[in-house]
Amino acid sequence: MSEPLLRLDHVSKTFARGGFFSRRRIEAVKDLSFTIAADKAEIFTIIGESGSGKSTTARMILGIERPTGGSLQFDGLDVGALNGHADRMRFMHAVQPIFQNPFEAFNPLKQLDRYLFLTARRFGAARDQAEAERLADEALRKVGLSLAEAKGRFPHELSGGQLQRVAIARALLSNPKLIVADEPVSMVDASLRMAIVNLFKALRDELGISIIYITHDLATAYSISDRIIIMQKGEVVEAGDARAVLAAPQHPYSRQLREAVLTPDSPRALAS
Amino acid sequence: MSGPVALHTPTTPVAGAALASDPVLRVNDIQAHFRTQHFGVSREVRAVDGVTFDVRRNEIYGLAGESSSGKTTLIKTIAGAIKPPLQVVGGSVQFSFMPGYPGLHAAPAAEVERVRWRHLSYVMQGSMNVLNPMRRVISTFQDFAWRHLGGSRKQFEERVVAHLARVRLDPAVLRAYPHELSGGMRQRVTIALATICKPDFIIADEPTTALDVIVQKDVLGMIRSIQQEMGSSVLFVTHDMGVHAHLTDRLGIMYGGRLVEEAPTPEIFSRPLHPYTVYLIGSLPRIGDDTPRKSLEGSPPNLADPPTGCRFHPRCPLAMEVCARQVPPMVESLPGHRVACHAVNPGAAA
What we know:
The structure holds 2 protein chains of 2 kinds.
Chain A: E1 6-17, E2 24-36, E3 43-47, H1 54-61, E4 69-74, E5 77-78, H2 85-94, E6 95-98, H3 102-105, H4 112-122, H5 129-142, H6 147-150, H7 160-172, E7 178-182, H8 190-207, E8 210-215, H9 218-224, E9 227-232, E10 235-241, H10 242-247, H11 252-260
Parallel strand pairs in A: 3-8, 3-9, 6-7, 7-8
Antiparallel strand pairs in A: 1-2, 1-4, 4-5, 9-10
Helix pairs in contact in A: 4-5, 4-7, 5-7
Chain B: E1 23-38, E2 41-56, E3 60-64, H1 71-79, E4 86-95, H2 109-115, E5 120-123, H3 127-130, H4 137-149, H5 153-166, H6 183-195, E6 201-205, H7 213-230, E7 233-237, H8 241-247, E8 250-255, E9 258-264, H9 265-270, H10 275-282, E10 331-334, E11 337-339
Parallel strand pairs in B: 3-7, 3-8, 5-6, 6-7
Antiparallel strand pairs in B: 1-2, 1-4, 8-9, 9-11, 10-11
Helix pairs in contact in B: 4-5, 6-7
């Protein structure tokens, strides 16, 4: 067994809230452990409602938030204590984020291609503008767009689904090993949701990129995930193979979640 | 529902309730466009372009469609929230409780005052934006409903407390500020607020989209039981097809500013006819179903420069020559099932 790509070892995060006199501690994540293997790409899903700690987990994996307990190792780097420019650059090369609302992720006053060129020159191999354009076009083609469609356009000129794909293309420019996607489809329309979700599958199968997919949507999670953990109030209540867990959840909370999913197959359960 | 709900059964049925098929809302070929003029460049976005449908008494009518399909503009037009650059270009919106006016946007202010909240109310998406953060919940109730219900302060408050019991809220929330309540509780407060005057018609715009799944199911059940108890009509807008499947009686599918299909909700799911609806239903992921989901090619139409003819034809697998030329009319292909598609209704275009 080789060293895993990502290892979370009893990670926890506590936020202190309040002033000098009344200090309250909120345990956002408690004792979370899992690993993602380096040799086999997979889609690892974290499911939970608001306040379950899933976004805090994502921020810790991305190195935005430091864990208050336990250790978080990525490819030999201690993410909780990244120090120095070289380490940080190496980490940012390998781990890329995709956020919930693509309209907030992009500066509305900046053309989209400029983001791609900047990323290509900073994290990609591009040395000059021509090469940056070539790399940007290549990345956009991987997500089903082309540079001609994005060039000179501002974020508001694209639909949410297209913009989210541009965000994924931007993340691909640095040839990452891991993508952390925090609710990437919750702002995207139902008809475009599957296109994005299927894209994640293609990234895993064709490019060998592991994806941490954070969501509260059980149906899309079922259709793409390999492994899954269900979080409630900072703790993992159930973990395992995605299909097995979602088909027959064991923990009362997971069962409650599963029952609350409104599927088109059992219509009119609320009527009468 | 049982228990505290029974306290407050409606005693005066609304006039005309005997005719269940009576339309409360009749939208007739409504057209609402955004018209802008900047530096001499005029632009027209045809967000709602000729939509016709009825909402009957005592039914939940669902509207589904992706963003930029015009569903939000349509309900803004129905609610009379017309502000430039949005303009009503043609058609009418007729409410049974407001005869003689072609819509709220064209009615005098006094008439709008009379109707609003008493006959027509709203449940909106962001409950935090609806409730005034600086006022306690009870003050918001007083602002909205006191003038319609009348009575002394004490009588009014008793009525509010009795009504809150229907949405299973403790009277203590009346003394709270909105930020002290959870998202689910706040949304229940807005539902109570929208239903306390027993309106004939409720417009619900994605009321549960911001809620967690477990809370969502709870809130939807509440909307259903209050609606059935009061016999109101609800226009329910969301892009979540799962919610439509569970809640609505009839469902209209919008695409590119037009209604493309309308049928009783179970029929839309079991027998979709329009190619866009077929795709929409087929693409829904289901737990326990491992067949891969196809995604639709292309992108939603640009309404500033929409495709000619049927607006779906550039993405449609069944597109024919006529589709690019002629707008397909809305035709009742099966009883109670209307579709606008040349492939489904050959020769329907006159």
